[in-house]
């Protein structure tokens, strides 16, 4: 038992200084920021594709009722508004460079973090409610043409998917984004502190 205590005491005394140069840390942090920028662009691209897919549906599907027109209109407007919000968030993170003005860049990262929080909380629910309302209007005409069992499956799958995305997926994305951006802010603040020393 004494040997274990001795080994434990030695282990406690042993510290490893891991020194990462400010340049290496800056390269790593810039790589992570570029990853966030790329992910934001991919999200914007996906939303633009969704916008055009809904517009094509509207153009090439023979719409008979006003409810279908209303449903597609609501969905297209919701997608357009959310895409504009995503683009504005992307501009926040892409417009400044850490090497030019570190304090401005850190401030823009903090603003981006706040905007992402608002996007995933308040604005997400506007988007989800608008999509749900649009789907309800859209389904009035579509579901009338289907058998009862196909109606039930379409409704359960559509709203089940939205509930799944609104709960589990949304929470996981919020947590991951929050940790990632907070870590980036911390890294850039440490780098800024090292450059000022």
Structure description:
This protein has 197 residues and is mostly helical. The chain has one domain (33-196). The protein is 87% helix and 0% strand. The protein has helices at residues 2-13, 22-60, 66-94, 102-144, 148-196. Helix 2 (22-60) packs antiparallel against helix 5 (148-196), helix 3 packs antiparallel against helix 4 and helix 4 runs antiparallel to helix 5 (148-196). The radius of gyration is 24 Å and the shape is elongated. The chain crosses the membrane at residues 40-60, 66-87, 123-142, 148-169. Keywords: Membrane, Transmembrane, Transmembrane helix.
Give keywords.
197 residues; mainly alpha; 5 helices; 87% helix; 0% strand; elongated; membrane; transmembrane helix
How many H/I helical runs? 5
The beta-strand count equals: 0
- Low-pLDDT parts are none
**Total domains:** 1
Please describe the biggest sheet, giving its number of strands, its sense, and whether it closes into a barrel: none
Note the overall shape: elongated
Write the H/E string, N to C. Answer: HHHHH
The oligomeric state is single chain
Keywords: Membrane, Transmembrane, Transmembrane helix
Transmembrane segments: 40-60, 66-87, 123-142, 148-169
